[in-house]
Amino acid sequence: MKNYIEDTYKQVRLQEGQRVIEQFLLACYFHPGLPTKELARKVLLPVPVATAIKKELIKAGAIQQGSGVRCTAEGDAFIEQKLGFGGLDRELYEKLMRDDEAWKTELADLQAEMETIFAGRPQVDVQIDQSKCTVETSLRRAILCLRHQSLVGKKILCVGDDDLVSISLGLLLKRLFPGNQQRPGQIDVVDIDERFLQYITDVSKQKALTVACHQADLRQA
Q1: What is the CATH number of the domain that holds 40?
Q2: Interhelix angle for 47-60 vs 19-30, to 10°?
Q3: What phi and psi values does residue 147 have, to the nearest 5 degrees?
Q4: Could you tell me the pTM of the whole model?
Q5: Parallel/antiparallel/unpaired status of strands 69-71 and 186-191
Q6: One pLDDT digit (tens) per residue for the chain, 221 residues
Q7: Is the same domain home to 125 and 208?
Q8: What domain count does the chain have?
């Protein structure tokens, strides 16, 4: 399958990198029919830059224009298969992307689940600068990853995870892709504290999350 993002980036070198091309393509996927100016506003790009991206994506066959801009069938397939959005609960996704506070109602049961998980985590070790955050903070970090297009289909590394952000990320992915046993995205945790690594591993197995743990002291790297 063609990589429309890489191919477009070769033609339109952007200081912002490939990420803005991905964001533009996703905006076409989730909001078909928008005019170019509105797409530019959504991805925070000047209209001439958005227009240049649009022209290259049209040339590549990923999007088309007619009563606004929208993805072609090939563009849809690329987003769903290559970027990992196939099987997404679009209604939940769009609520979380649109409203900063939507997670408080939409993910209320997930927050309650996290409260139980947090209650069982190991005590902090102040000698290695551990300090526990709240469930709300951990979930907000996961939502922030989602809203910045840094969760679905991405490789995520949590360096030191006494806040259990990896669990929040894994549970959020599980909720967003309810029918997928293999969820898009890879979450790895590196920590010096084997107690937290074991706890995260145990919770991940219990909840069927895609989180892998690695013990390492990065000060010695």
Answers
A1: 1.10.10.10
A2: 80
A3: -70, -20
A4: 0.91
A5: unpaired
A6: 789 999 999 998 888 889 999 999 999 999 999 999 999 999 999 999 999 999 999 999 999 998 899 999 999 999 999 999 999 999 999 999 999 899 999 999 999 999 999 999 887 665 666 677 899 999 999 999 999 999 999 999 999 898 999 999 999 999 999 986 677 889 999 999 899 999 999 999 999 998 999 999 877 76
A7: yes
A8: 2
